[in-house]
């Protein structure tokens, strides 16, 4: 998989040598087929293993007390998640476009996310005007991208920061916000949190595949999100400081004939 630096270098090569573009396109299509084939071949036996585990547990509940049984379960769950994320990353640029009423779409996103944190102490706010435009978009993949960012924000505000004495930081409650606005040409989306923030040295590579600081993360969530946004001809950037929160800024173009 290409990093953002690799992608920029590749674009430069294609600009300097246009005859190479067709060759690179063939390579990329072959690469995507390889990932799809591998994911499919692994998913089938993994599903069988998972089903067998459930059968064993139902017929022999005592296995739940066995040493490392829960770790085995967690490993299977992680592999399933990794395969799902690989598939999402591989297919992130394939869009099923249709007219999308962004006002109702973002209100559904906000409601869904608010419901998922109802039993937590996280304060969630949203700003979604009534007069947002209609976009040509893949609503399923766009929803996936936005929920990835909101879940990341949830993890960030739950991450313990150093003590108040060490950093002279006032105590604060965890907060996440979603804001959507539009101008003549662009839809602007901001997802912010007051969580642990992202270290400056990590921000340059944060959207690259397999970059993660989560114990159980695959490192593909933000890479998938960027692929989906870029496939919509949009942009995604961030502002962040360690222990001072993060803001993800997205833009999506408004087509005049949408």
Main features:
Heat Shock Protein 90; 2 domains; Helix Hairpins; phosphoprotein; 50% helix; 258 residues; globular; HisK_dim/P_dom; 5-stranded mixed β-sheet; EC 2.7.13.3; 8 helices; alpha+beta; HATPase_C_sf
Structural account:
It is a single chain. This protein is of the alpha+beta class. The chain has 2 domains: 4-90, Helix Hairpins, CATH 1.10.287; 98-253, Heat Shock Protein 90. It is built from 8 helices and 7 strands, in the order H-H-H-E-H-E-E-H-H-E-E-H-H-E-E. Helix 2 (21-59) runs antiparallel to helix 3 (69-90), helix 3 packs parallel to helix 8 and helix 5 (139-158) runs antiparallel to helix 8 (221-231). The longest helix has 39 residues, at 21-59. It is globular and about 65 Å long. Residues 37-256 form the Histidine kinase domain. Its EC number is 2.7.13.3.
């Amino acid at each position: 998989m290409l990093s953002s630096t690799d992608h920029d270098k590749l674009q430069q090569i294609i600009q300097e040598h246009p005859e190479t573009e067709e060759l690179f396109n063939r390579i990329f299509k072959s690469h995507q087929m390889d990932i799809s084939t591998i994911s499919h071949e692994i998913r089938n036996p993994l599903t069988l293993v998972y089903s067998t585990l459930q059968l064993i547990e139902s017929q022999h509940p005592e296995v739940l007390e066995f040493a490392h049984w829960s770790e085995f379960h967690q490993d299977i769950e992680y592999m399933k998640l990794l395969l799902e994320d690989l598939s999402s990353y591989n297919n992130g640029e394939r869009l099923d476009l249709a007219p999308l009423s962004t006002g109702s779409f973002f209100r559904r996103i906000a409601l869904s996310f608010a419901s998922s944190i109802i039993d937590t102490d996280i304060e969630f706010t949203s700003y979604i005007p009534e007069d947002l435009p209609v976009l040509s978009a893949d609503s399923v993949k766009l929803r996936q991208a936005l929920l990835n960012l909101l879940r990341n924000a949830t993890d960030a505000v739950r991450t313990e920061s150093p003590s108040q004495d060490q950093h002279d930081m006032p105590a604060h409650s965890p907060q996440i916000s979603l804001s959507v606005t539009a101008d003549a040409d662009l839809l602007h989306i901001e997802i912010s949190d007051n969580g642990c923030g992202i270290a400056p040295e990590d921000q340059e590579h944060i959207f690259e595949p397999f970059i993660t600081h989560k114990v159980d993360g695959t490192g593909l969530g933000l890479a998938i999100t960027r692929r989906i946004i870029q496939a919509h001809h949009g942009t995604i950037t961030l502002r962040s400081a360690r222990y001072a929160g993060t803001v993800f800024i997205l833009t999506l173009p408004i087509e005049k004939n949408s």
